[in-house]
Design goal:
The complex is a heterodimer of chains A (112) and B (114). Chain A is mainly beta. Chain A contains no helices and eleven strands. In chain A, 0% of the residues lie in helices and 57% in strands. In chain A, the strands form two sheets. In chain A, strands 2, 4, 5, 6, 9, 10 and 11 form a seven-stranded mixed beta sheet that branches. With 114 residues, chain B is mostly beta strands. The termini of chain B are far apart. Classes of the chains: A mainly beta (112), B mainly beta (114). Chains A and B meet through strand 5, strand 9 and strand 10 of A and strand 4, strand 5 and strand 9 of B.
Chain lengths: 112, 114
Protein backbone atom coordinates (compact mmCIF):
# COMPACT_ATOMS: atom_id res chain seq x y z
CA UNK A 1 0.00 0.00 0.00
CA UNK A 2 1.02 3.59 -0.52
CA UNK A 3 2.33 5.73 2.31
CA UNK A 4 3.38 9.33 2.53
CA UNK A 5 5.68 10.78 5.14
CA UNK A 6 6.82 14.32 5.76
CA UNK A 7 9.21 15.86 8.25
CA UNK A 8 9.90 17.56 10.49
CA UNK A 9 6.55 17.50 12.26
CA UNK A 10 7.15 20.81 14.03
CA UNK A 11 9.58 23.59 13.42
CA UNK A 12 10.24 26.94 15.10
CA UNK A 13 12.46 29.18 13.00
CA UNK A 14 13.57 32.80 13.34
CA UNK A 15 12.68 35.35 10.69
CA UNK A 16 15.27 35.37 7.92
CA UNK A 17 16.38 31.79 8.45
CA UNK A 18 16.15 29.10 5.74
CA UNK A 19 13.54 26.35 5.55
CA UNK A 20 13.52 22.81 4.25
CA UNK A 21 10.53 20.48 4.58
CA UNK A 22 10.82 17.06 3.03
CA UNK A 23 8.22 14.59 1.83
CA UNK A 24 8.50 11.08 0.45
CA UNK A 25 5.93 8.71 -0.99
CA UNK A 26 6.29 4.94 -0.96
CA UNK A 27 4.42 2.21 -2.81
CA UNK A 28 3.72 4.04 -6.06
CA UNK A 29 5.61 5.27 -9.08
CA UNK A 30 5.44 8.66 -10.78
CA UNK A 31 2.91 10.18 -8.38
CA UNK A 32 1.68 13.72 -8.70
CA UNK A 33 2.98 15.60 -5.66
CA UNK A 34 1.63 18.67 -3.94
CA UNK A 35 2.44 21.15 -1.18
CA UNK A 36 -0.52 22.79 0.58
CA UNK A 37 -0.62 25.28 3.43
CA UNK A 38 -3.34 25.77 6.00
CA UNK A 39 -3.02 29.15 7.66
CA UNK A 40 -4.85 29.77 10.92
CA UNK A 41 -8.63 29.97 10.36
CA UNK A 42 -8.31 29.44 6.65
CA UNK A 43 -8.78 26.64 4.17
CA UNK A 44 -6.21 24.61 2.30
CA UNK A 45 -4.20 26.58 -0.19
CA UNK A 46 -2.26 24.84 -2.96
CA UNK A 47 1.30 26.15 -3.12
CA UNK A 48 3.04 23.86 -5.63
CA UNK A 49 2.39 20.71 -7.59
CA UNK A 50 4.64 18.44 -9.62
CA UNK A 51 3.83 15.88 -12.30
CA UNK A 52 7.38 14.54 -12.57
CA UNK A 53 11.04 14.89 -11.62
CA UNK A 54 12.17 18.48 -11.99
CA UNK A 55 8.70 19.67 -13.02
CA UNK A 56 7.28 22.22 -10.60
CA UNK A 57 4.21 24.42 -11.00
CA UNK A 58 3.66 27.30 -8.63
CA UNK A 59 0.15 28.36 -7.78
CA UNK A 60 0.79 31.57 -5.88
CA UNK A 61 3.69 34.01 -5.82
CA UNK A 62 5.44 33.73 -2.51
CA UNK A 63 8.60 33.41 -0.54
CA UNK A 64 8.79 29.65 -0.97
CA UNK A 65 10.11 27.26 -3.61
CA UNK A 66 9.74 23.56 -4.28
CA UNK A 67 11.93 20.91 -5.84
CA UNK A 68 11.52 17.30 -6.88
CA UNK A 69 14.97 15.72 -7.08
CA UNK A 70 13.65 12.16 -7.21
CA UNK A 71 10.43 10.54 -8.37
CA UNK A 72 8.95 10.16 -4.90
CA UNK A 73 10.61 13.05 -3.08
CA UNK A 74 9.25 16.57 -2.80
CA UNK A 75 10.97 19.38 -0.93
CA UNK A 76 9.62 22.76 0.18
CA UNK A 77 12.24 25.44 0.78
CA UNK A 78 12.80 29.06 1.59
CA UNK A 79 16.01 31.05 1.69
CA UNK A 80 14.66 33.61 4.17
CA UNK A 81 11.52 33.00 6.18
CA UNK A 82 8.93 35.69 6.87
CA UNK A 83 6.51 35.85 9.79
CA UNK A 84 3.68 35.30 7.30
CA UNK A 85 5.16 31.91 6.35
CA UNK A 86 3.91 30.45 9.63
CA UNK A 87 1.29 27.75 9.16
CA UNK A 88 0.55 24.08 8.77
CA UNK A 89 2.19 22.63 5.67
CA UNK A 90 0.88 19.50 4.03
CA UNK A 91 2.45 17.30 1.42
CA UNK A 92 0.09 15.20 -0.68
CA UNK A 93 0.09 12.82 -3.62
CA UNK A 94 -2.31 11.55 -6.24
CA UNK A 95 -2.40 9.10 -9.09
CA UNK A 96 -4.43 11.37 -11.35
CA UNK A 97 -4.33 15.15 -11.45
CA UNK A 98 -7.63 16.66 -10.37
CA UNK A 99 -8.65 13.46 -8.65
CA UNK A 100 -8.39 12.20 -5.06
CA UNK A 101 -5.27 13.34 -3.22
CA UNK A 102 -3.82 11.77 -0.09
CA UNK A 103 -2.18 13.91 2.54
CA UNK A 104 0.81 13.44 4.80
CA UNK A 105 0.81 14.11 8.54
CA UNK A 106 1.60 17.80 8.18
CA UNK A 107 4.37 20.05 9.48
CA UNK A 108 3.77 22.93 11.85
CA UNK A 109 6.01 25.90 11.06
CA UNK A 110 6.20 28.83 13.46
CA UNK A 111 8.32 31.76 12.37
CA UNK A 112 9.35 33.94 15.30
CA UNK B 1 -12.84 34.61 -5.41
CA UNK B 2 -13.96 31.67 -3.32
CA UNK B 3 -15.18 29.00 -5.70
CA UNK B 4 -16.00 26.46 -2.98
CA UNK B 5 -17.88 27.72 0.05
CA UNK B 6 -18.72 26.11 3.34
CA UNK B 7 -20.93 28.73 4.92
CA UNK B 8 -21.22 27.09 8.32
CA UNK B 9 -17.95 27.34 10.24
CA UNK B 10 -19.27 24.98 12.90
CA UNK B 11 -22.00 22.45 13.60
CA UNK B 12 -22.97 20.67 16.81
CA UNK B 13 -25.09 17.50 16.93
CA UNK B 14 -26.02 14.82 19.43
CA UNK B 15 -24.55 11.35 19.22
CA UNK B 16 -26.80 9.06 17.21
CA UNK B 17 -28.39 11.88 15.23
CA UNK B 18 -27.73 12.87 11.64
CA UNK B 19 -24.99 15.38 10.78
CA UNK B 20 -25.48 17.34 7.58
CA UNK B 21 -22.55 19.33 6.26
CA UNK B 22 -23.13 21.64 3.33
CA UNK B 23 -20.99 22.97 0.52
CA UNK B 24 -21.71 25.32 -2.39
CA UNK B 25 -19.63 25.94 -5.47
CA UNK B 26 -19.68 28.57 -8.18
CA UNK B 27 -17.61 27.05 -10.99
CA UNK B 28 -19.91 25.14 -13.33
CA UNK B 29 -16.88 23.32 -14.77
CA UNK B 30 -16.33 21.38 -11.54
CA UNK B 31 -17.21 17.74 -12.10
CA UNK B 32 -15.57 15.88 -9.25
CA UNK B 33 -16.25 16.52 -5.57
CA UNK B 34 -14.69 15.18 -2.40
CA UNK B 35 -15.02 15.37 1.35
CA UNK B 36 -12.07 15.21 3.73
CA UNK B 37 -11.98 14.90 7.49
CA UNK B 38 -9.26 16.54 9.53
CA UNK B 39 -8.28 16.13 13.18
CA UNK B 40 -6.14 18.86 14.82
CA UNK B 41 -2.46 18.73 13.92
CA UNK B 42 -3.00 15.91 11.41
CA UNK B 43 -3.29 15.77 7.66
CA UNK B 44 -6.79 15.56 6.13
CA UNK B 45 -8.13 12.08 5.46
CA UNK B 46 -10.12 11.34 2.32
CA UNK B 47 -13.68 10.31 3.17
CA UNK B 48 -15.84 10.05 0.09
CA UNK B 49 -16.14 11.45 -3.42
CA UNK B 50 -18.74 11.86 -6.11
CA UNK B 51 -18.59 12.41 -9.83
CA UNK B 52 -20.99 14.80 -11.52
CA UNK B 53 -22.60 11.91 -13.39
CA UNK B 54 -24.10 10.79 -10.08
CA UNK B 55 -26.28 12.52 -7.54
CA UNK B 56 -25.57 10.25 -4.60
CA UNK B 57 -22.74 8.14 -3.30
CA UNK B 58 -22.82 6.09 -0.13
CA UNK B 59 -20.09 4.51 1.97
CA UNK B 60 -21.18 3.09 5.30
CA UNK B 61 -22.39 5.90 7.55
CA UNK B 62 -21.35 8.55 5.02
CA UNK B 63 -23.47 9.68 2.07
CA UNK B 64 -22.70 12.53 -0.28
CA UNK B 65 -25.48 14.17 -2.27
CA UNK B 66 -24.87 16.35 -5.31
CA UNK B 67 -27.37 18.85 -6.72
CA UNK B 68 -25.78 20.13 -9.91
CA UNK B 69 -28.50 22.63 -10.77
CA UNK B 70 -28.11 24.27 -7.37
CA UNK B 71 -24.32 23.82 -7.36
CA UNK B 72 -24.64 22.30 -3.93
CA UNK B 73 -23.39 19.17 -2.25
CA UNK B 74 -23.86 17.81 1.22
CA UNK B 75 -22.35 15.15 3.42
CA UNK B 76 -24.68 13.15 5.66
CA UNK B 77 -23.30 11.17 8.59
CA UNK B 78 -25.74 8.73 10.13
CA UNK B 79 -25.58 7.92 12.97
CA UNK B 80 -23.11 10.52 14.23
CA UNK B 81 -20.47 9.35 16.69
CA UNK B 82 -18.18 11.35 19.03
CA UNK B 83 -15.19 10.17 16.96
CA UNK B 84 -16.66 12.04 13.99
CA UNK B 85 -15.82 15.33 15.71
CA UNK B 86 -13.37 16.99 13.34
CA UNK B 87 -13.10 19.65 10.65
CA UNK B 88 -14.67 18.59 7.36
CA UNK B 89 -13.43 20.05 4.09
CA UNK B 90 -15.31 20.01 0.85
CA UNK B 91 -13.23 20.05 -2.35
CA UNK B 92 -13.94 20.23 -6.07
CA UNK B 93 -12.07 19.93 -9.34
CA UNK B 94 -12.48 20.09 -13.09
CA UNK B 95 -10.96 16.68 -13.69
CA UNK B 96 -10.89 17.01 -17.45
CA UNK B 97 -9.76 20.58 -17.66
CA UNK B 98 -6.43 22.34 -17.70
CA UNK B 99 -6.76 23.51 -14.11
CA UNK B 100 -6.10 20.28 -12.32
CA UNK B 101 -6.06 21.40 -8.76
CA UNK B 102 -8.54 20.57 -6.06
CA UNK B 103 -10.19 23.71 -4.71
CA UNK B 104 -11.03 23.45 -1.03
CA UNK B 105 -13.60 25.16 1.13
CA UNK B 106 -12.58 26.65 4.47
CA UNK B 107 -14.00 23.77 6.44
CA UNK B 108 -16.77 23.11 8.97
CA UNK B 109 -15.98 22.06 12.52
CA UNK B 110 -18.32 19.24 13.51
CA UNK B 111 -18.79 18.49 17.21
CA UNK B 112 -20.70 15.36 18.15
CA UNK B 113 -21.80 15.47 21.77
CA UNK B 114 -22.15 12.21 23.74
Amino acid sequence: SQTIHQWPATLVQPVGSPLSLECTVEGTSNPNLYWYRQAAGRGLQLLFYSVGIGQISSEVPQNLSASRPQDRQFILSSKKLLLSDSGFYLCAWSVVLGNTIYFGEGSWLTVV
Amino acid sequence: DQQVKQNSPSLSVQEGRISILNCDYTNSMFDYFLWYKKYPAEGPTFLISISSIKDKNEDGRFTVFLNKSAKHLSLHIVPSQPGDSAVYFCAASNSGGSNYKLTFGKGTLLTVNP
